[in-house]
Amino acid sequence: MSWAEGRRPTTEPPSTTPILNTHMEQQRGLLLLFLGVQLLLMGAFLYQNRHRHSFTSFLRVLIQDRPTVGEELPFLVSVSAAQTSSQDVYTNLSQIHPVGVSEEDLPSCPLISPYINGPLKVMIPENLTMEQVVEKNPLVELGGQYRPPDCWTRHHTAVVVPYYGQVQHLQHLLFHLHPFLQRQQLHYAIYVVNQVHTTAFNRGKLRNVGFWEAMQEEEWDCVFFHDVNLLPEDDRNLYICDIFPAHVSVAIDKFNYKLPYHGYLGGVFALRPTHYLRINGFPNSYWYWDHEDHDIAARLQLSGMLLSRPHLLFGRYHMLEGQDPSHQQSPQRHCWHRPVRMVEQCSPNRIPCNQMQHEKNKVHVYG
Length: 367
Fold this sequence. Notes:
eight-stranded mixed beta sheet, 13 strands, 9 helices, alpha/beta
């Protein structure tokens, strides 16, 4: 037997090209399926949030050009941009005016509002009156609600302000906060929740009442809980919600523009409605704020959510002078109930939710 005859016959390995082609086609199909699901989810999101816009506007959202250099999102702007000169909060707002088309035909608001500048001067007129606040904000509707008249916005924010009779503080806040929010091209409304009884100040309870009252009026996708004595100093501090709860007032002038202590969560706090439900609202049992921060931090930890904060250069606030009612002493009686429920059942001096009085002012809802 020759060597050639005794050699074991061999077979050529099968070609892998058809297998690779099949695998690539499967991946391409999965990618197209994924993109289709994303389109359906985005469409459902727009419909759920009552963005009754035309199909062309929906496509405009999908194919919107990426921002050019220097137009990055405000919370991604380089720190060096914070050195721009300060402006009055009403600067350039006179350029905003209705364009004479229906809401469905409005163009989408730009990704970055053209009115955002950065640092703002806190300039409050002497002997300010509520009539002056109304005069300076002619586009604000009854009840303190505003929509950009010249573009369609995708951000809808309610601002809840616990209130305990600080008339001057409230006037200063409304004078400054309305144009601040208009600069960001938001759809917003300001809800002032008044504690009418003479018991000590209970910020958590007022926040809970304000949240539920606001959500009954509109399907807000973001709620800012705002102390009446804090005025924002930089309009890049966007009043929109992130995927996480946010403590926004991280740099207050009274505390030398830094957190007064680790774990401080006072001042301005932002939640999506889903966030609010996951932490079970705010504590009703604190009649002073010394331990309220620890309670909120514990709720966040139990919910498994992280906490978001803006850059120290953006989350800057001026604190108005005067006594903070949250520092008053606690009354002897305490009620240890779940948040929101206590508003209806626990407080001996309560106003049940179905009996709350509402007054729609030109620049805010007063309840």
